[in-house]
Amino acid sequence: MSSYNAVKIMVDVQNLNVAFGNKKIIHDVSFSVKKGEIIGMFGISGAGKTTIIRVLTCQIEKKNWTGNVKVSDLTPAKKKNHSKILANIGYVPQLETLNLYFDFKPMVNVDVFASNYGMNKKEAKEIARSLFTILDIPEDTWDKSLKKMSGGEKKRVSMALGLIHRPEILFLDEPTTGVDASKRYDILSYLKKLNRQLNTTMFIITHDLEAALICDKVAILREGKLLEFEVPQKLILSLPSEGLVVRFIIEGLNNDKINIIKKFVSVQKIIRVGNEMLEVLMNNFEESLPKLIQYMMEKGIKINSMSRDVATFRRYFQLRIQEEEEKEKILM
Amino acid sequence: MMKFVGKIREKIINTNFKGNLENLKESLFRLLKMVKKEFRLLKTDKMNLIIALALPPIIIVLFGSMSNIKYDPVPIPCIVVTNDSNTFINPNNYTETKIDDFAILYVDAVNKSKDLDLIAVYNSSEDAYVMETARNDLISSRIQIIIVIPVDFSEMLSSRLPGIIECIPESSDFQHIQDNLNAVQDSINIFIEDNHLNPKFVLQAYEEYSIPSNYNFKFNYNITLMLSFVIFGISTVLTILVVVQEKPIARLLLTPAKRVEILISKYMTYMIILSIQVILLITSCLSQGLYLRGSIFDLFIALFMVGFTGVSIGIFISAVSKTKTEANQLFFAFYIIIVILSGIFIPISAMPEYLQVFAYMLPLSHGDPMIRGIVTKAKSVFGFDFFSLLCISAFFVILSFIAFLKRRYEV
Ligand SMILES: Nc1ncnc2c1ncn2[C@@H]1O[C@H](COP(=O)(O)OP(=O)(O)O)[C@@H](O)[C@H]1O
Ligand SMILES: [Mg+2]
ipTM more than 0.95? Predict the structure, then answer.
């Protein structure tokens, strides 16, 4: 038996359906997650990301969902499993007000939460010290008022609290939403750091597509359906010509011009990414590119500049959602 | 040159005035829009608005329905104890003769009096412990006066001597002493008139449960009245926010902590604080010169019970309220109704029956009589009022748990 096969399945979801009354929210979702993986849950707001996480964290009553769900080998379907599951997972909510006692110091918050897992004060403090250090929370703030901390520091204290009992799985709901663009990357790299050092399995709910950079696998959700659950690079490679794109800046770009380009045989997908900017995916990229340029010149489309690149996850996501929307249109 | 300057000045004044008018207009416009916004904000919390608008008329109607009652003073419950013997032994010839039984005639007069409500007549020659029984009735507030017919009552009246009636009015409430004495006097007047007796009658009163003269009776009366209101009020106010205010409960529920545990921990905490409040309250009352006839232990238990009812109502309010304002509003609604119907404005026995039933379901209707009984009459804390409070608080404890278990928490 190779060591790779021995990696433990931490979360297993088979045919999950969630409905509130007559409203079906999640349709037949299945996936499984191995120990140490970072999973990014992507989807526009209302797609059902939070709902799936709520099922996994025992927050939705069994009468509202069906399917086989296991979180560290226990099913949230049984009420008696809840405290065992909750002892094994951590949760970092989107809003710090729901997570932290602002009137208490960080270390007091640590004590309050850790005691619910049966940890004593000394043990909790030790773990908190190491987490705070990894997260670069300045030591002189540990025993000062939490109210005086910056938003980013509060977020990091919140993350530390989620990990205080050394859970095997950590759920984070929109960890980068509402954080400065410059700090967003910091948060992500802290998560990666924690994941590497503690081997914690992580679920990151987000609509921040840059977060895919640190994810081992991404889940793409749309209207309660799981469209993809895969390694992000593999998804990009599945695009025409393994995700190679050509980017044009075209003078006076309009829908007519786009439709003309669309008619070219090898063109597979077109995304307008700015007022005058266009990205094109094609079959047989290397051969087709010169032909496309010639075709455009013949049709009188003036190319101001041109560059080639590999598609980002952001592009993949847009294309995948676009594809789904088109399918739906045809059905209607 | 001067003319020119003057013109400019005029112009400046003109534009300033116009400008000011413009500013004022804008300011008024903004103000109106802000008022509109305030109303919009108010509408987002409907429950609040309902309480704010509906409570005042409810209070007035409640008051009205109580004060429209023709408030006949309720007859004062009493017991007559007779020590009279109706057998008269003639000292001249040692023969027994039955003489007119004036004791029975007096009892008739008591029955006739509208101010008195005769509960029982005890005869001391039949039962040696009648006075004790009567005193217990006085303690339990079953009666307000013990009327005692003295020895040789009939004999003296037969001999046309002035009669004597003794009475023991309940005097813990100094405002009622005179009413009690007047009622007895009324029965005496009826008795004299009906039987054409010598009007020179003596009424001897022995105040029972009155405050010793070296204590301030007014202070005693008022403080006793205050106690239940104070302990109920502060313990409720202290707890009405404990659930609504604590947002991270949502996150605590994602640890192995259970809802039941969270609420029990709140009850435990506020019971400890309540004990301290009660101790401080008792200590300050005694140091200020409260005359406590009963035991400190009984008073402690009584105040704790009233306070605990407040804690349970407070936590219940907190568990059902969505916002802090809503909790405050609900508290005010609860408190004012509980106070109005507590019996301090109008005795509960004078209320219409449906209101009486409702009043007895409220804590302060029991708190005051229970505490007064302990302070003024050394009554035991364990009685009807205590068990009523136990039921009321149990009811709200259960409701608060149901509300908290159903409360929606989402992270
Ligand atoms: N308790 C609920 N009752 C009814 N509908 C709900 C409930 N919770 C979520 N929904 C609905 O489910 C859908 C998905 O919500 P959610 O999982 O929060 O989306 P996301 O986290 O992807 O933004 C939304 O349309 C939302 O209105
Ligand atoms: Mg969400």
Answer: no
